[in-house]
Amino acid sequence: MGYTTRFKGSFNCSRQLTIDEAEYLRAFSSVRHMKRDNAIAAQLIAEGKLETNTLRAKVKLPLGTQGAYIIDVNSNLEPSKDKSILDCNHPPKEQPGLWCRWTITQDRQQVCWSGVEKFYDYTAWIEYLIKHFFAPWGIQLTGTIFWAGENDADMGHLAIHQNHVFTRKNNDIDTLPSLQAHLGICRYALEQYLSKILQNPSDLSQHEVLAIYEEEVAKLRHLCTKLRSTTTNSQT
Length: 236
Known about the structure:
With 236 residues, this protein is α+β, with helices and mostly antiparallel strands. It folds into two domains: 17-140, no CATH class; 173-235. The protein is 38% helix and 18% strand. It has helices spanning 19-28, 38-46, 55-58, 122-134, 176-199, 206-235, and strands spanning 5-13, 35-36, 85-87, 102-104, 110-113, 141-149, 155-161, 164-169. Strands 4-5-1-6-7-8 form a six-stranded antiparallel beta sheet, sandwiched between helices. A two-stranded antiparallel ribbon has the order 2-3. Helix 5 (176-199) runs antiparallel to helix 6. The radius of gyration is 21 Å and the shape is globular.
């Protein structure tokens, strides 16, 4: 269950991240962010029972408010025995959710979606990363990422210019470049569906496969019609 949003594109970094910065942020996108007691967390870390990696130390970050910066990838403690956790179902203060799915590309020059489904609060998360990591490290993000949710009307783009974040939803999109971009993300979504079907053909019946295909094709036709109308109007 849950709601899935897909993303296409990336944000460019004004400089290449260091290896340590990139490794920290990749790890940050892979862990569950839970509200913690910093005093207990510090004691467990000193005892070698929590955050047994050196990722946070390498980028010289503190524990953060309610343990916000802790990267507990290879903890020696089971979650039920980690006494520093105050609430496993609520994130630390200021963090928008339990999971952040923005990650760093292999060349360490861009921010992109990790590909993990059910990514919520994606705008708030990129704003958080800018405020707490990129800006303090002297990095500015610029670029555009397009999103398409399961709901037909849930489409738009997330744009950043020198760390200033802007969003536009599908209802606001009426320019030719925006329509072209959304045509691209519809095609991308269709490709993802077909790829899943080919990888696990037994997961879906023939009827379900055709229903998904026809739904995505209908979106493409709608956007093509709108593109044609916009192009014609701009030429008259």
